Amino acid sequence: MKLVFIGDIVGKPGRRAVQEWAPKLRERYDGLDAIVANAENAAGGRGLTAKIAKEITSYGVDFMTTGNHVWDQKEFLTEIGSVPNVIRPYNVPPGTPGTGSAAFDTPTGKKLGVVNLAGSLFMNYSNPFPVAIPAVEAIGQQARIVIVDMHAEATSEKVAMGWHLDGIASLVVGTHTHVQTADETILPNGAAYITDLGMTGPHDSVIGVGKEMVVRKFLTQLPAKFEVATGDTLLCGVYVEIDERTRRATLIERLRLPCEDA
Ligand SMILES: [Fe+2]
Ligand SMILES: [Fe+2]
């Protein structure tokens, strides 16, 4: 199975980057089975809506994960149930709208399991470790290949989750920090891993937000309006190949692709 996993799409520049690159990635990687993306910041940098999920899907993204910003657009609480290709963090209280894992049909006719965990350090989700293996194994009943988005702040928690799921999931990617790490690897039991995919959006910024606004806020400690930046737009993520017979990853390549500025 050949997959691209795109890091946090931020606002309109991020969506333009996906629009520009999704078709080019399908050309570049012959037989690409699916494009997956974290879309927690796709709506103006804050959250996601059904309309924007549909827009991103129309550009060629097949499935979306989210994170701590999933409910920033309140309407998404009622919308998520009718959006078939978006999941939210798994380790949340019972009764939370949406689902934290799903087996999706790829455009190439395969089943892909996706689990969206969220971190407990600096993020207030319940401990993802006790539920991670059962979640992957449950969705593994419906899909031969299962991949995991571990949306978390702490590097240690993401690295530990990679080791915890090595041999259980075929790919574990970290998201949320918006800064790509250079540690992509295939772990000993076959899980491809990277601590953070990085951000798909404007990099002339502080993790997607206009840099002057963020610097001023740190300087003055006064409330400030944050807006998505413009300029130096990159699509960040990974390309991964997985052997469907063994469920082991055979290749992981980091993507950091320049875009026309939106
Ligand atoms: Fe994010
Ligand atoms: Fe996040």
Output the keywords:
6 helices, alpha/beta, Purple Acid Phosphatase, chain A, domain 2, 262 residues
Task: Summarize it.
By secondary structure, the protein is α/β, with parallel strands linked by helices. The protein has helices at 11-28, 50-58, 76-79, 129-140, 155-165, 211-220; strands spanning 2-6, 34-38, 63-65, 101-105, 111-118, 145-151, 171-175, 185-186, 192-194, 201-202, 233-242, 249-258.
Order of SSEs: EHEHEHEEHEHEEEEHEE
Look at the structure and give the CATH class. Alpha Beta
> Would you identify the regions where 5 or more consecutive residues have pLDDT less than 50?
none
Beta-strand residue percentage: 15-25%
Fold and architecture overview:
The protein is an alpha/beta fold. The chain has one domain (2-258): Metallo-dependent phosphatases (Purple Acid Phosphatase, chain A, domain 2). Helices cover 24% and strands 25% of the residues. It is built from 6 helices and 12 strands. Strands 1, 2, 3, 10, 11 and 12 form a 6-stranded mixed β-sheet that branches. β4 (101-105) and β5 (111-118) form a beta hairpin. It binds fe (ii) ion (2 copies). The site of one fe (ii) ion has 6 residues, from loops.
Question: Topology, please?
Answer:
Elements: E1 2-6, H1 11-28, E2 34-38, H2 50-58, E3 63-65, H3 76-79, E4 101-105, E5 111-118, H4 129-140, E6 145-151, H5 155-165, E7 171-175, E8 185-186, E9 192-194, E10 201-202, H6 211-220, E11 233-242, E12 249-258
Parallel strand pairs: 1-2, 2-3, 5-6, 6-7, 7-9
Antiparallel strand pairs: 1-11, 4-5, 8-9, 10-11, 11-12
Bound molecules: fe (ii) ion (2 copies).
